[in-house]
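FYI - complex with zinc ion, inputs then prediction.
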Amino acid sequence: MKTKTCSKCSNTLAVSMFYKNKTMKDGLMSTCKTCDNLRRRERALANPEYENARSKAWRKANPEAAAAIRKKSKDNYRANHYDKYIAGRRKYYNAKSAKRRAAKLKATGPWTIASEIAKYYKATRALEYVTGIKYHVDHIVPLRGEGVCGLHTHSNMQILRATDNIAKSNHYSIT
Ligand SMILES: [Zn+2]
């Protein structure tokens, strides 16, 4: 195993414990990853604005690398804190469905006729059965649209292919 001695903590470590640095003779930093990370953290704590601006600029210049790092740290988090990850997801989806329920309640009124709405759902299931494609019952004017709020009523409903509905999201253009 190839090793190197850190110039700061003096530990002799595997070369994999050193970040790469093209300007160095051996292609590696003189200080180990632990020391580098510590130094970076201290620097960030001492001057958070400067560090934030610096990493923001780097992310802007290296969008793909930044996305890869983001994904990796997300994956790591998920692997190392699985329970927390699940709890977080649950909280997110609960909040989302609470919002959806509230919007539905707000859009519900004398115009909401359960038996008429049920017909849409029944037709959707039948369509799925015949075509083998997933369909959604969609509110033509979204209940939580951008600047508009549709009503929860059968006259504001349509059957859409699930993929089209997901693409539509909450967009609705007022013409
Ligand atoms: Zn070190």
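The CA atoms of residues 18 and 32 lie 5 Å apart. Residues 6, 8-9, 11, 31-32, 34-35 surround zinc ion (CB under 6 Å).
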